[in-house]
Request: fold
Amino acid sequence: MNLAASPDFQEEIVGREVVPGNPNVVRVLFRHRDALVLPIADWVDYGLKIGLKVPPDVIRQFVRRANMVDALQLARVYLTGRVKTSAQVTTYLQRKGVDSDAISDAIRHLEQIGALDDEAYAVQFVEVYGKRTGRQQLYQKLLQRGIPRDIAKDAVASHLAQDVEMTAAIEWANKYIRRHGLPEDARARMKMMQHLARKGCPSEIVRRAVEIVLRHADGEA
Reply:
């Protein structure tokens, strides 16, 4: 969008400055208003140059872009270290008092460049915690972290290997026995199975895990 042909000139660009430590942005100086820090790509995309006059509607766009730049700066600090979800970054920016448009723009930008990827987060979470967390618990934990329901459901269904789930269920069953002893009757066995089910294990995994553990215990007896 080249502004030189716009009939509604009001604000004039009088200079541009480098922003120390951030080569991806530029400080644009105007004659009658405060400077705005914009993505450096905007200087090219909008056809900006010193002496160019900018109509009010585009100034409003620039203000929104500048607000996004501020939000991105906050988000990048928050993203240093552990991987975060889009919802977690959104909540963080809201607590910082960033306006909703800037948050939406920043989240969209971070997703476009791959700095936020809820699908990858969900898959990694399942692969890391699936060894000690049941299917339903994994799903709920992903929801608590702001992962959309469809992404959470697909990640658990597609990336929680059955052998990993079985290993976790057997471990929980053994822990249950160490704490409560071997089930002596059908009622006690049902309580043990309900305990595994509350961990989020599917019914077939629960049944097989209990059978394996009890068979092993009988063999040692």
The mean pLDDT is 87. The two ends are 81 Å apart (CA to CA). The CA atoms of residues 174 and 213 lie 7 Å apart. The first strand starts at residue 11 and ends at 18.
